[in-house]
Amino acid sequence: MLRQNDRNKRISAYHSIREAWTNHEESSAAILNAINGWRLENNSLRSKKRDLHYLDISCHQSHINRETLNSLMGTTYENRSVGQRALKAMAKGMKVDKLGPWDILAPAPMMAGEGKVYGLKESIDLISEAFSRLTPQMGDFAQMMYKKNWIDSRPSEFRSPGAYCTGFTNIREPRVFMTFDGSIGNVLTLAHEIGHAYHNWVMRDMPVVSTYYAMTTAETASIFGETLVRDYLFENCKTDKDKFEITWQDAESAAAMLCNIPARFEFEKQMVEKRKEANIPASELKSMMNDSWKLWYEDSLSEYDDMYWASKLHFSISSIGFYNYPYLFGYLFSLGIYAEKDNHGDNFNELYTNILRDTGSMNAVDLIKKHLNKNIEEKAFWQGSLDIVEKAVSRFEGLV
Ligand SMILES: [Zn+2]
User: Fold this and answer.
1) Cα of 284 to ligand 1 centre, how many Å?
2) pTM (2 decimals)?
3) Cis (ω within 30 of 0) for the bond into 127?
4) Which residues make Cβ contacts (< 8 Å) with residue 87, sequence separation at least 6?
5) How far is the CA of 219 from the centre of ligand 1 (A)?
């Protein structure tokens, strides 16, 4: 409901969601306190020789190191104004003074019935075309997913919105599940999931044990798929209005990655630190969330969502902490790889495939050193990707 076109409905959906979570804030706070208290206790029992830092554990799970995480977050903070500019331009496009937290998932503002609705087959053809520009194999793969009925998207009243990709150990075949309503955002989500599926597909001959990649590199193949489709769509736009609709997606992603994801990271860090000392009441979780949004969004929103710690369910996934920065990592990492496309010409697909194949057996630092001779521990790598985001935001500003 937060993704619908009608702003008044979004506003009332937002307030209703907030109210519902506020009614359950004590239970929600208890859940976060229990999970994080347990994790900290667990960490303290894992070593008698030294303190295990919760971020070291997260980096280990993500197949990166602290230097990489620090330079990723540090460079993004220096470039946060790019995400904020995207939000300000979106506000202008929506003809409002400032966006509220109810607007950050909104589709491009259109007159009723103006947004194009894509059929599933039509979306597959489009994705296949876009993927084929990198390599025909990747385009054929998208078609095969469709022909073999490996994409479950049949509408049903029992489906909730969302999408994911999964696979089998035996047989080595991927599957995509998604709820498909034909919006442009949906087409990109489908490209995202087929990107994941392709990652699994190029590893299908390898021993299963060498194919367990971390969340950071998992989100690389998927966002790479999205980027291919986004670029293709933009280049095939006939009018400025079409371009506006496509670049709206660029702006929304930039704001999500450069402001929202880091605010989640900041909040979680504060929460874990505080949890070391005491149980955290709901009121304090609210002020922490408020401060975290303020740090990253600054004046680009009219207010901050201080109940986000309850409504964003990522914080209460018990199996893994810091379910946030891997998205930012995957976004900038895949843009960094994408930027290499023209430098490698016809060999790029082989290079890309080899990168994907090594994701299960190498950490991301060595992976990029080996294949691209670049150092992701250094800010320069991330700045290169952020410059690409800046260009996309400028393009959107121009169209607004
Ligand atoms: Zn994904």
Assistant:
1) 31
2) 0.92
3) no
4) 99, 104, 251, 255, 259, 297, 300, 301
5) 5
Q: From ligand 1's centre to the CA of 76, what distance in Å?
A: 20
Q: What is the pLDDT of residues 210-220, one digit of tens each?
A: 999 998 999 88
What is the model's pLDDT at position 114? 67
**How crowded is the C-beta side of 205, counted as CA atoms within 13 Å?**
3
Report the alpha-carbon distance of residue 375 to residue 363 in Å, rounded: 12
Three-state DSSP at 167 gives strand
For residue 104, report the distance from its CA to the centre of ligand 1, in Å: 19
pLDDT band at 111 (very low <50, low <70, confident <90, very high): low
CA angle 154, 156, 160 (to 5 degrees): 100
- Within 10 angstroms of residue 165's Cβ, the number of other Cβ atoms is 24
What token pair was written down for 9? 């409905």
Q: Is 385 left (phi over 0), alpha (psi -120 to 50) or beta?
A: alpha
> Of the candidates 370, 380, 366, which has an alpha carbon nearest to the alpha carbon of residue 336?
380
Helix pair 184-201, 240-255: axis angle to 10 deg? 60
Ligand 1 centre and the CA of 53: distance in Å? 27
Question: Whole-angstrom Cα distance, residue 351 to residue 353?
Answer: 5
Order of strands across the sheet with 163-167? 151-152, 174-178, 163-167
Give 62 Cα–ligand 1 centroid separation in angstroms: 14
- How would residue 199 be classed by pLDDT, with cut points 50, 70 and 90? very high
- Please give the backbone phi and psi of residue 377, each rounded to the nearest 5 degrees, phi first: -75, -15
360: phi then psi, degrees, rounded to nearest 5: -85, -15
Q: Who's near 163: CB < 8 A, 6+ residues apart?
A: 176, 177, 178, 179, 189, 190, 192, 193
Instruction: Please tell me whether residue 178 adopts helix, strand or coil conformation.
Output: strand
CA of 216 to the centre of ligand 1 (A): 10
For residue 152, what is the enclosing H or E element? strand 151-152
Around Cβ 147, how many Cβ atoms within 10 Å? 11
* Cβ neighbour number for residue 208 with a 10 Å cutoff: 12
Q: Which two tokens stand for residue 332?
A: 């900038």
Tell me the pLDDT tens digit for each residue of 217-263: 998 899 999 999 999 999 999 999 889 989 999 999 999 999 999 99
pLDDT tens readout for residues 115-163: 688 999 999 999 999 999 988 999 999 999 999 999 999 878 888 778 9
Q: How many angstroms is it from 82 CA to the middle of ligand 1?
A: 23
102 Cα to the center of ligand 1, angstroms: 23
